[in-house]
Amino acid sequence: MTQVEESTGTPPPGQRSPLSGWLGVVALALGTFTVVTSEMLPVGLLTPMGESLRVSEGVAGLTLTITGLVAAVSSPVLVSMLGEVDRRMALCALVAVLVVGNLGAAWAPNFGVMVVARILVGIGMGGVWAIAAGLAVRLVPAKSVGPATSLVFSGIAVASVLGVPAGTYIGAAAGWRAAFFAAAGLGLVVLVAAAVLLPRLPAERTIPLGGVMSLFGNAQVRTGLIVVGFVVTGHFAAYTYVRPVLEDVSGVGAAMIGTLLLVYGVAGVAGNFLAGAGAARSPRKTLLVISSVLAATMIALPWLGGSLALAGVLMAVWGVSYGGVSVSTQTWILLASPDAREAASSLFVGVFNGAIALGALIGGLAADGIGITAVMWVGGALAVSALVTTTVGRAPAAVRA
Asked: Which residue segment(s) compose the domain that 275 sits in?
């Protein structure tokens, strides 16, 4: 992988102890875990939240949509506004915004206050994710950038396995507000860890918002973002409705659904590290495999999911393949824009979160208009589109070992 040679005012990785660099990477991973957990927390708390705030579950679900859309819009804007601000300071400030948002959600006496709180969470999430995504390369030697980037993005995969279920458990044991208080407490831990474990990280290159948007003119960046749009939209079109699909196809109960989703989540963590190693060498080849497996799995589930054993296997394969999407696509973007990693990462975060919202919308339209299993056909078709784009589009050069 290309090593950063420009002067940033920060000692290069080779001049810092390996331990200090990896501790910084761990702090970033904890940060991505915290922002994704904060974003997804309402998923397991919709019923008690809606009852307490006197809104329907559907309206309460807007707290997730609002956060994702705010993150999508604010990420590129924030990166351009930060200018030459030291990235450690910026990261700490954005985590502080996230903490305030979670505290506001925990306190919210009505839905209006909850919306404001979730907007703050979206701002903090979009900024933290965009900044953290490109920092691993500045903390460790070039040969360790692939594993370090995988570790940063493992926070996202682990959040889907542990973060949301843990929040749901806290909500059941101590009330839904306690879950948001816990997320705020975790944010404070991240704030302290970032302040203590990260070195000074001066901005590498100041890019105005127009410059950020001009990265769409980079064919490699543009291709990577289109792939992100197809694969993430396809995944969430299908995965958002995977529970009713499994109930309809496999006839399984709630307890077994939970087990299948746990299998998916654990497999996703493994897929994150497997894909990270491959993407560091060739993001195109890695994403060709991921898109192919995702398409085949989603299309096969309505046919083969009637067998509980096969449904479990398909959920595990789905988890492994999608678990590698974040790290593989982010690696593509970083390799495609080595002189503007942070700006490109902000576009990545924006497209990624926008695709989450779009996927849930398209899946809902397909489920209501055609039938619940149709979401799998839609998801599979979009994964095929990602496969075609990856094949014919401009990709960054594979890295020689």
From this structure: 210-392
